[in-house]
Amino acid sequence: MSERRDGDPGRPDRAGRAASDAHLPRVGRIEFINCFPLYHHFEEELGRRGGRAEIVSGHPAALNRMLVAGDIDMTLMSSIEYARHADQLALLPGISISSFGAVDSIQLFSKLPFDEVASIALTEKSATSVVLLKVLMRERGLRPGYAARRGPLADALARFDALLLIGDEALHVLRAQVYPHSYDLGEEWLAVTGLPMVYAVCAVRGEFAACHPEATVAIEQALMASRDRCAADPLATAAAAALEYDFSQRYLEGYFDRLKFGFTDDYRRGLLEFYERAAAIGELPRVPDLQVATPTW
Question: What's this model's pTM, rounded to 2 decimal places?
Answer without folding.
Answer: 0.88
